[in-house]
Design a protein that fits this description.
Strand order of the largest sheet: 13-12-11-14-10-15
Largest sheet: 6 strands, mixed
Shape: globular
Strand content: 15-25%
Amino acid sequence: MSVTAAKGFTAAGIAAGIKASGKADLALVVNTGPRRAAAGVFTSNRVKAAPVLWSEQVLKGGAVTAVVLNSGGANACTGPQGFQDTHATAEKAAEVLGHSAGEIAVASTGLIGVLLPMDKLLPGVAAAAAELSEHGGEKAALAIKTTDTVHKTAVATGPGGAWAVGGMAKGAGMLAPGLATMLVVLTTDADVDAGTLDKALRDATRQTFDRVDSDGCMSTNDTVLLLASGASGTTPEYGDFADAVRAVCADLARQLIGDAEGAAKDIKIEVVNAATEEDAVEVGRSIARNNLLKCAIHGEDPNWGRVLSAIGTTGAAFEPDRLNVAINGVWVCRNGSVGEDRDLVDMRFREVVVTADLAAGDRSAVIWTNDLTADYVHENSAYSS
């Protein structure tokens, strides 16, 4: 169910001592081939962590033989020393694996503005390499957790099980991405080139990770990588392959929102009958970032006025007196005014669905978010996260 679900990959996850807690904090994923094609998307935040800058350069070559990931420190805003540490990490992995550092991607997550303990990380890379296994995906997924309460993995297979796409993700906060969400590694044993991987990955992230908006805060470290080993010997139809990549990304994205910091409700925002998809996404994101609405949903209050208020701040095409809003299937707002009795809305369960009908076209989009809770405030104020 993880990055080793596809043939041609090994992985490991260990405790290198980066985290003071002594929990697992270093993961290694290796593509054993025969193909080593890769694609990646990264945060659109202009403040980028050293590993992002490094891995962006690596991906320009279209090949990745291994990925080193650490939790316990983001290595962001750490200046020239931070970039040098990322380079040293890739060099160490290249040394122990017998590969080129120019084909080693690096990803980090944790507190911003703190240098990594390289005296622990570099020996950890060698220790992780010694534990690489075709069954190591689960341990790798555990090692990249920070405030995550659970590790996140997913898998999809092609027709007849001829090939597979597997993946792991971490993320529970700073989930308001541009192209990616926190750290994600996807693998496939399909025989596809870097250009195909790039197209499938960008199509998938646009519809999944880019539409998860937990707290309106974009990370400096967001990284999503897709690696292909070609070990199945099968080149799939593009549509089948793109569907599988999208399915794994959608599964992981849903797990991310389900584990968002302090959340008690998972909120699915459906924007329908928009003039354009861009309008639908803009409206959905505005609703997702409305803290008043998020508080109301936490209190199980179907306050549809806050939905209309959020829609009204956007540049989307709509007429205010034609807007409709449903909460968990009850149309509490009709034509910009009072609709069905709000007491009919049942909000006792974890998932809440908010439907915004713009009555302006035939386009739609879904954005996932969560409620705003006292636990979220506590988790992000009681200690550095």
